[in-house]
Each structure stands twice: as C-alpha cells, then as structure tokens.
Amino acid sequence: xxxxxxxxxxxxxxxxxxRGCCTPALPDGSLRAARAGLxxxxxxxxxxxxxxxxTLCESLLSYGSGFNNFQGIFNWSVVLLxxxxxxxxxxxxxxxxxxxxxxxxxxxxxxxxYKWPAVYLIAASVxxxxxxxxxxxxxxKVRGSESIGLVLQSVNLLLLVxxxxxxxxxxxxxxxxxxxxxxxxxxxxxxxxFSYYQVNRWYREGTPRPVRGTSRxxxxxxxxHQSRRNExxxxxxxxxxxxxKVKDLYYFLLAPTLCYQxxxxxxxxxxxxxxxxxxxxxxxxxxxxxxxxxxxxxxxxHKSMKPINEIESTLLTEYILKLAVPNHFIxxxxxxxxxxxxxxxxxxxxxxxxxxxxxxxxNADSVLQFWSRWNIPAHKWLDRHVYRPLLHHGYDKWQxxxxxxxxxxxxxxYLIAIPLKMFRFWMFFAMAAQVPLACLxxxxxxxxxxxxxxxxxxxxxPPLMMLLYFxxxxxxxxxxxxxxxxxxx
Length: 489
Fold this sequence. Notes:
The chain is built from 16 helices and four strands. By secondary structure, it is mostly helical.
C-alpha cells in the first residue's frame, strides 16, 4: 500500500487520465471503486482498435427507450400546481377580500329549527323501508304468490321514489341543498331495497346468484336453520330465512354498500383511533369545501350572471376556465371526504369489512373505465342487478352498457332536477353521450391519450354543467324579465 499503482488508459487517452499517470496509494476498496468508476466512463473498443462512443439507442423520452423514472417531472408538476393555486388564491383575496364566514353558514342551518322540512323527510324514510321485512316474511309463508309480492315490492319502491320527489318539488320552504340531500337519501334506500328484494327472491327460489368478489354462493335450503361459522370463525353465519329481521334490514340500510347479502364481512373490533382520525378529516374537509365555495365559486358565478345567449363564446370560455380549477379542486376534496373519510368512518363504526369504495380511477384510459372505478358501491349494484341480468336475457354488451348509462343518467337527472324544480336534462344528455364518445375516443386514441381525454372531461365538464344549471335556475326563479330567457326555452 505504500507504492503508487497505475490504471490502464485507452489508446486515445479518452480524456480521462494522461498516459502513464499513476495514482497515489489507495486502500483496496477505494482502488476497486476507482476502477469501477473509470470502467463506466471508458467505452469498449471496436474491432478496428479505435474508441467507440455511439451505440444503437432511443431518445430518453421515446416509448422504446424503456425509461420510466419521471419522479423529477412529477415533483416539478406538483410545484407548478401549488404555485398556480397560491397565485390564484392571492389574486382572489386581493380582489374580494376574505369571504369565508363559518358563522354565516351555521346561522343558515340554525335560523329556525322548526322549518327543517328536509330533516323531517329524511326521518320519514325509515318508515318507508320498514315494510320490506314484512313483505318478505309474507312471501316466505305464502308459496306461489310471487305476483302479489312483486306488486307489493313495486308499490313500496315507487313510494320511495315518488313521495320525496313530490314533496321536494311542491314545498317552497325546502332549499335546493336540503332537497338534494333528501333525494339522495331516498334513492339510496330505494336501491338498497331493490337489492334486498332480489337477493331474498333468489334464496326463496333456491337459486341464489353468485356475488361478485366471492368464489360461489351455496344453494340455500329453505328448511336449513342451522348456523355455520364464517371464513374467519368470528361469528355464526345467518341462513335464509333467519335474515328476515328488522335488525338485519337496518344494518344493511346503514352499511356503506348498495348490494345485499346475508352475511357481510365483519371485523372483530372497532378501532377508536381510526374513527377519530376519519372524523377529524370529515370536519376539516367539509369546512374547507364550504370555504372554497364561498371564496372561489360564488364570486365567479356572480360575475357570469348574464343570459347565455348574450355571452360571447370567448367570455363563456373564460367563465368555464375560471370555474374549472376551483370546481375540480372541490370535487377532488369531496371525493376524498365522502368515499374515503365518511364511508370508512361509517364502516368502522359498523365493523363492516369490505372497504373497497373506489379503485384507481385516476389511471382510467376512458370515461367508461372511470365510471366503473370511482364509485364501486354503485358500480357493483349496476353490474349485479342491471348489466349481468341483461346479458343473461340475451342482450349484447353494447345494449347492456348503454342501458346502464341511461339508467345512471336518469338517477343523476332525478337528483338534480327535482331539488332545482326544473327539467333541463343537461346531465342526462351528458351522461348518455359518454358511451359512444368514449368508444370513439378509444378507437381513435386509447391508452395514455384516453387518460388525458378523461382528465379533460373531468376538469371542464362539471363547470360547464354548473354554469348551465345555474343560469337556468337563476333565470327561472329570480329573474322575471323576458330578456333573460334562454334562446331555446
């Protein structure tokens, strides 16, 4: 170790070391490291003996290069996104000041507790769900009366759909927000009871259908009342018809799912720390959404209060773009607030084991794939009770898929049109057009371009819908001047 050692140098010198240059004495480990470093910088010789500095390779950003480490570009995008939001927030604050007022929001809800029609309507939904148990018990006792049971079930479901719609539409005291919440609760209960009726009918007929996500469902023996252990050995399995109890029904109505089954996966105990974290998230994100609506959405909406037929296309585009960023930001917060914080908190309270409320919708390569990933409870219900039965009855995939989207469009229009007390069918046409448009885009582009188109639809579609419904609502309920009427209504 006391003498210097020489590294071999390339014939042309390589620009690395002078010929015959010796290094000072190094430890063996350092010597190996130095040789490895030089080996990485000296190119192999070609057959002619000259140094070769070019090889067959693709550019780094080409698809064929195999390079996939874009973490730096992702960090750069996040920094730009944060700076853009900070700039927009400062601009909004300088122009309008601080508009967020939580006291004002609370005062709206506490103004007169004796005039809360939405609360009373939601409380009444419990009574509409109760007959489902007695209808199923009646059908269990009376054999061969499926037609009578179908009539009773249809009447119950029809009441769940029409009663809140009539009350919300005709009551002047109820606000659009209260009406939307009421309609949402009733439509959720109606979907749950439809699944409740269907699954019990499968067991009553002795031919239960397989549930997606499970290996298979054993045929139910109507006379079998014995209990069985579930796959974890935690509790006893409930067999039909022992599930026809009020307690079982109301657990299903509270559970964060739309699809009924006799035995739900359950956890052993309830984690209090997990519930506290989710509850804090719910409170914080809810107030954050309200603050962003007051600070960002309301001023832009007030600026756009002008008849659509009098707004120039460039000005209308400006309104949409100004609403796009805050609206999309609020939508992302709402997604996390509802599908992660709220549903997980509710599932933990009920010890409900299936927590797959969403999938990686942000990686969807089409709008159709997005709708099948972002709301898993609704997707499972549509797949189990609409899509697969249509395929079973001989319809092809295109017809079944179009039926699913038309039914979804009716649900969305039902939730929006009744609380606003007007029918414009913007949401219906937007949902119905997504199937052929998504198929066309997938055929033309697909892959990464399909994901880009999906994000463009999510960013620009909701603010356009908001502007259209807001203008129609404002013109119909607050402006009587005929010049504010839309040119096509």
